[in-house]
UniProtKB/TrEMBL annotation:
Residue ranges of every copy of the Cytidyltransferase-like domain listed in the record: 6-132
Gene Ontology MF, one: nucleotidyltransferase activity
Protein source organism: Geodermatophilus obscurus
Domain of life: Bacteria
Protein's UniProt name: Glycerol-3-phosphate cytidylyltransferase
Keywords: Nucleotidyltransferase, Transferase
Length: 149
């Protein structure tokens, strides 16, 4: 039986943590689908739009050797995504484990026979840290521009 794995994420400002999760996920399934969360869903769920647009994020992720196919995740409910994709295991970073969101994910997927598999979260690199660094650089550039105007 072919095991279909699903690794959802924003994959914005793609970094080593993203690559680690996708490579590890590919080792635990026969066919890996990377779910790239749409700009609209990110805005709805995280309160901010991505830096890199959906089409470009899908192109980046879809060109990784470890990813077999890419799915644009356009609904926030992972069970609805499961109905569209039909995966056997969903992969998440272990920062979800033991949280209300993680507990709900495990409960919802247990009801439909999908296993939740966690991987270690890459602590030293995150899109949030990269976004903060970009914001700081932009702030410096604005201040410098204001001084020269």
């Amino acid at each position: 039986m072919t095991v279909i794995g699903y690794a959802p994420g924003a994959y914005d400002l793609f970094h080593i943590g993203h690559l680690n999760v996708l490579r590890r996920a590919a080792e635990h399934c026969d066919h890996l689908v990377a779910g790239v969360v749409s700009d609209e869903v990110l805005l709805l769920t995280k309160g901010r739009a991505p830096v890199v647009p959906l089409a470009e994020r899908m192109e980046i992720v879809g060109n990784l050797r470890c990813v077999d196919s890419v799915h644009a995740e356009t609904v926030p409910d992972k069970i609805n995504t499961w109905r569209e994709v039909g995966f056997d295991v969903i992969f998440k970073g272990d920062d979800w484990r033991g949280t209300p969101k993680g507990d709900r994910l495990e409960r919802d997927f247990a009801a439909v026979g999908v296993r939740v598999h966690y991987f270690p979260y890459t602590m030293h690199t995150s899109s949030t840290q990269l976004r903060r660094a970009l914001d700081a650089l932009a702030g410096r550039a604005r201040r410098r521009e204001a001084l020269t105007s």
